[in-house]
TrEMBL record:
UniProt protein name: ABC transporter substrate-binding protein
Organism, scientific name: Brevibacillus reuszeri
MF term (GO), any: ligand-gated monoatomic ion channel activity
Annotated ranges, domain Solute-binding protein family 3/N-terminal: 54-276
Superkingdom of source: Bacteria
Principal location listed in the UniProt entry: other
Record's GO cellular component terms: cell envelope; membrane
Protein location: Cell envelope
Residue ranges, compositional bias (Low complexity): 30-48
Amino acid sequence: MKKHTFFSMALSSLLAVAVMAGCGTGNQSGAGQQPNQPQPGQEQTTPATGGGKTLTMATSADFKPYEFHDLTSGKDEIVGFDVDIAKYIGKELGYEVQINDMNFDGLVPALQTKRADFVMAGMNPTPDREKNVDFSVVYHEARNTIVIKKDSGITKLDQLAGKKVAVQLGSTQETTAKDAAKTVQGLQVVSLNKIGEIVEEVKTGRVDAAIIEDHVAKGFVENNEGLQLAPIETAESTGTAIAFPKGSEHVAEFNKVIKKMQENGEMDKLIQKWFGQ
């Protein structure tokens, strides 16, 4: 009996040591696992660096040159015009900025449910959006344009009669297309989540055209020889602003830094960097 007891105790001790050796500290991952990688359908987060106060910026990083994924450094980094502005404002005000990437139509709900402190995504301060969120002053002006194939023969909005037109879900371009459909007979609006998907639909002929913000459209057309732009003739420009939850304390302090950037030339430097103008 004593031999069996001794053997059982020794075996139990060895098993305990083996279990402890296999346990990590919480920072280790198993073979083949990548920690902190988003699963399909989940929001992707770019962590803030350094210490201090942190603000969460929500965006839809498929809107080059405003915000997009850059892999040239060997890692997935969200960069762009809006990102540079957010980082400048954060530095001026003493905040670290954490970026959450999600679908465009989820941005306003993210503010309403307090999952983000602000949104920068080439967003326009429309009356409908102003019912649900607060906006900063406008920091950039742009216009909408039609993206079509070069052989389409389309040069203006009223030539889209009987055509399928792709737009981004929840965008002002979607509103523009739906408004046009009221007067342009047979115009069908196809709403999709990502700009890349929209351009691909035009390239493959599944839709006849797309309506996209001009700076963003220009970048796609430059990389696709078979596409061209047809500016939408209108006196209205599309102002871009930062969105906040209703009653946010950050609106006033962000406005001060935006005005400072416009006065000290920093905003012009970033416009030249990202838009070449």
